[in-house]
Amino acid sequence: MNKKKNTKKSKVAASVTNSGEKKPFFTASELDLKKFEPTDAQKKELYYFIMLNRAFDDRVAKLYRQGKIIGAAYGSRGQEATSVGSAYALGKNDIVGPIIRNAGAIIVRGLPVKNFLSNFIGRSTTPTGGRDGNSHLGDLNIGVFAPISHLGSLIINLTGCALAFKLKKEPRVALTYIGDGGTSTAEFHEGMNMAAVWKVPFVCIIENNNWAYSTPTMNQSNLKDLAVKGKAYGMEAVVMDGNDVFEVYRVSKYAIEKCRAGNGPILIESKTMRMKGHAEHDDAFYVPKEMFAEWQKKDPIIRAEKYLLDHKIMTPAENEELKNRVAKDMEEAEEFALNAPFPLGEEAAEGVYAE
Amino acid sequence: MATITYLEAISMGMREEMRRDPNVFLIGEDIGVYGGAFKVTKGFIEEFGADRVMDTPISEAGIIGVCVGSALMGLRPVAEMQFADFISCGFNQLVNQAAKIHYRWREAVPMVVRCPSGGGVHGGPFHSQNPEAWFFHVPGLKIVSPSTPYDAKGLIKSAIRDNNPVLFFEHKFLYRRIKGEVPEDDYIVPIGKGDIKREGKDMTVVAYSSAVHWALEAAEQIEKEDGVSVEVLDMRSILPYDKELILQSVKKTNRVIVAHEATLTGGVGGDVSAFITENAFEHLDAPVRRLAAIDTPVPYSPPLEAHFLPNKDKMLKVMRELAAY
To answer: Cα–Cα distance between A215 and B259 in angstroms, integer?
Structure first.
């Protein structure tokens, strides 16, 4: 049933909207995105980043199995293109609020993977200094707003960032992500509604990866396309292929620049698939094997690689070189993280309040 | 120096801060054109414009969460909960996001949430609560609750200038009933500092907000009728509270009542009592007493509400018991 739901493009009746428009959202192919096409160099960099995102997650999983990660190990296998393509489309002064499956966004914004990995094992060499774990980190120097575990929260917080940009007349944009499950929260609703009422430069990407822990999207929402929610708030909405990093980039860039020009907010639904369990402790027994097999064919890395080679944007030698670079990055990161110092116990008492 | 109400003092403090710092803005339900449910922001939209006096949808989590985001982007938001009771809808944003950001990633969150609180106004269970204890247990938040116009102005200004999330509990019953002299110039009341509102030598009442007034009234009466000299210590700040001043006073008077309008169990008074017992046990001539509302929701009907709330007479009774111990 889920497989069917995800492989068939659903049609939403015009009666869903009150505005008389035929469709409550655009698909990427209906938009003119030519001017947002990444350059060849950018395409190769996007490919590098989705590989690095996966290698990072794989390394986290490996360290978890070795007992070196004491807490939970969340990954984003299958969803790398959504995080990477969207964060890559942001400007230097924009701000992004990643949640647990957006390691790629944090890496693209410039946090070195060695410091990022340190955060999974509680070392002092991270933006949190060991006070929080995994991808729960923020650093305004690279425009990253830290999530909390409570889903929906960042929708409001990033709307608040976008409101500040609007009030201060700064040409900046705020972007955050939410899962299909997170759209069920009250905070999602309050944030989306406020963003729309105030027309702030805010991009919300719903990563519809079909699963919220063990709960399929059909048990979260009666909508087939969560993008319809945008219409409900009076917000432009776009559906994109979340496993095509170049499409993700184009659609995100379109949305970001439209917001920057004062025509926000925009909702994007990324159709994608979580290719593992909720975290490393979860073997995802509840996901039909055929569903994994179906989505494996749409793996974002294989697709990007094929595109770059087929279009002769990247030579096989360059491909090797990029893969080696990713492997080397992660070797160095592991070496660094495992040897990084722990914080001192008494530091736990510091920093509750700002001066 | 003008004599103004407690409510006018809050307005004056906010207006001064908005004139001083263009990054300060107000956000809340019906605060703009309407001027706020209690008219604390009356005239603000005319002076500062709709961008700095923002009316919002009915979304308390949204209001508080937007404060967090905009504070991190360099603004200094001051939110109004229409009634303190509604802050429960924004609980998550306060306790999990606002309170923990500086600890987790060392960014300051300069924001204020104003909370019109308190009973005695026949508001019933959802327009009368004193919910400060919900937040007293949350490291990362600050909580203040003035009892006089002077402190109200000084504390709202401190709260706005503070680089942390500050909850400002302003008592609805005091809004127009309490008047006092308030300087028109710029001054602040520091967060974390209590104030001796009345000197005394036989016992101390540690109180805040409305309870300060019952204590002052009861102190006058017991002095006149029984010759007992009561010191009234106004905490003003609840988190952090002025432990040093409390110890000084208790060591002088050797008897203490901790009083507040919020309900007894799990209230701020429990922690203050424990602190005194742990740190000044040898100085105490009697057990620490607490005076608070009874452990029920706030009832609506006047006789029920009168039974629920502490007041001057209940304070006087506890004072007499303590004096006789």
So the answer is: 49
Q: Which of A109, A155, A157 to mutate to test the interface with B (most CBs of B within 10 A)?
A: A157
- Does residue B105 contact residue A146 with C-beta atoms inside 8 Å? yes
Q: Which token pair is B181?
A: 């002299």
With H, G, I as helix, E, B as strand and everything else as coil, classify residue B111: strand
Residue B196 pairs with which residues in a beta bridge? B233
Look at residue B167 and give its three-state secondary structure: strand
From A93, A85, A71, A110, select the one nearest A207 (Cα to Cα): A85
Residues B158 and B13 in one domain: yes
Pick from B72, B142, B164: CB nearest A140:
B72
Q: What is the pLDDT of residues B16-56, one digit of tens each?
A: 999 999 999 999 999 999 999 999 999 999 999 999 999 99
Chain-chain contact of A139 with B105 (C-beta, under 8 angstroms): yes
The DSSP secondary-structure symbol of A128 reads T
Per-position pLDDT tens, chain A of length 355: 444 444 444 444 434 444 445 689 999 999 999 999 999 999 999 999 999 999 999 999 999 999 999 888 999 999 999 999 999 999 999 999 999 999 999 999 999 999 999 999 999 999 999 999 999 999 999 999 999 999 999 999 999 999 999 999 999 999 999 999 999 999 999 999 999 999 999 999 999 999 999 999 999 999 999 999 999 999 999 999 999 999 999 999 999 999 999 999 999 999 999 999 999 999 999 999 999 999 999 999 999 999 999 999 999 999 999 999 999 999 999 999 999 999 999 999 999 999 9
Are both B42 and B133 inside the same structural domain? Answer: yes
B109 and B42 within one domain:
yes
Interface of A with B in 296-325 (CB under 8 A): none
Number of neighbouring beta carbons within 10 Å of residue A209: 24
Nearest residue of B to residue A349, measured between CA atoms: B103
Q: Is A101 a catalytic residue?
A: no
- For residue A162, what is the nearest residue in chain B, using CA coordinates? B70
Residue B111 covered by a domain: yes
Average pLDDT, rounded, for chain B = 98
Q: Which of B97, B109, B113, B143 has the highest number of chain A CBs within 10 A, making it the mutation to test binding with A?
A: B97
Say yes or no for a CB contact (<8 Å) between B105 and A146.
yes
CATH code of domain A24-337: 3.40.50.970
Residue B55 CB partners (closer than 8 Å, separation 6+): B28, B29, B30, B31, B32, B33
Chain B residues within 8 A of A159 when measuring between CB atoms = 62, 65-66, 69
Please give the structure tokens belonging to residue B270: 């429990």
Are the beta carbons of A159 and B62 separated by less than 8 Å? yes
Q: How confident is the model at residue B130, as a pLDDT?
A: 98
- What pLDDT digit, counting tens, does each position of B124-140 carry? 999 999 999 999 999 99
Q: Examine the domain organization and report whether B177 and B199 are in the same domain.
A: no
Range of the domain at B18: 2-182
Q: Across the interface, do A138 and B105 touch by the CB < 8 Å criterion? A: yes
Q: Give residue limits of the domains in chain A.
A: 24-337
Say yes or no: B151 and B201 in one domain: no
User: In this structure, are B23 and B115 located in the same domain?
Assistant: yes
Mean pLDDT for the stretch of residues B217-241: 98
Chosen domain end from B151, B182, B213: B182
Q: Are residues B149 and B64 in the same domain?
A: yes
Let me know how long chain A is.
355
| Domain termination site, one of B132, B154, B182 | B182
Count of structural domains within chain B: 2
Residue from A160, A255, A254, A251 nearest A203 by CA = A255
For chains A and B, what is the number of CB pairs under 8 angstroms? 131
Would an 8 Å CB–CB cutoff place A221 in contact with chain B? Answer: no
Which are the catalytic amino acids of B?
127
